[in-house]
What does this fold into?
Amino acid sequence: MKNISLRKATINDKALVVDFDYNLDAVEHIELKREEKITKAIANEECFIILADNSAVGFAVFDYRFFDQGWIELIVIEEKYRGKGIGVQAIELICKQCKANKVFTSTNSSNTPMQKALTKAGFSFAGKIDGLDDGDPELFYYKKADSKKTKN
Ligand SMILES: CC(C)(COP(=O)(O)OP(=O)(O)OC[C@H]1O[C@@H](n2cnc3c(N)ncnc32)[C@H](O)[C@@H]1OP(=O)(O)O)[C@@H](O)C(=O)NCCC(=O)NCCS
It folds into this structure.
């Protein structure tokens, strides 16, 4: 298995991250002004490059905007590297660097790879919210970031 690591993205990584995001969904990338969001995430040190044997294979955006808990806003693995366990390891690394007690995230009900990855990374189901994407509820998950720091 490849050696998976994370590093904080810098402004020099912007084109790479924009490319990953554009390739994921070009329409959403443009309509949701994702380039602007990526630029802000990099400036706020909330964007991480996911490396496999030191090659960039994806990125994650992680912050503390969800009730002051860790929040994985987005994680993307480049298509050709999916299904190889990289996503699970990257999620585990994100949890390790989290400074809050818990890490939360959400994904669409239709996104079974993400649900599988979260379950494998030790996340529990937290609840479902209807009404965001029509006919595709948002499923929330959480994990205690570090048992030593966590009281509940
Ligand atoms: C969700 C995502 C981050 C998971 O990363 P990953 O490296 O592919 O996941 P892993 O290999 O660690 O394992 C996750 C599960 O998804 C399955 N999976 C992921 N991609 C797959 C693919 N292209 N084909 C088949 N199975 C796939 C894996 O088989 C695995 O489940 P299993 O081992 O129980 O069968 C990745 O698929 C991705 O980038 N998807 C597009 C963006 C996205 O939806 N992000 C999440 C919402 S923010």
